[in-house]
Amino acid sequence: MSAPVPLIRHGAVIEGLPAAILSRLATDAHRQGRFDRLPEPDRARMLAAVAALHAAAEGWRTSVVGNAETAVVDASASSGHVDIAEAARMLNLSQRQVRNLAPDLGGVQAAGRWLLDADAVTAEAARRNAA
User: Fold this and answer.
1) pTM of the predicted model, to two decimals?
2) What are the extents of the domains in the chain?
């Protein structure tokens, strides 16, 4: 008789920038009390999933910026991310204007600094230049 095959439940692996974005969205929803409406077993599962997202997001942030306490950001395009200053230069905008656009440019805050998706910033620059 063969050994039973373990049951794999539905799930997803979320890491990197998507985990950071979803972590932020889940935190906002939790602060707004949206999880309070869930029945207790579902609420507990949701909070466990949010904790896992936070852990994945923190792991990603640490890999991007180094130690969370020192937060030295490597804004090179090779990392796939640019900081506010570089994006402002690419878009010919002020840093304040870019901070306002950051969520639309795949931005995530890591250790208090914005990191923007380099491809999104490049696409926005091309769109602005074409207009």
Assistant:
1) 0.45
2) 16-65, 77-130
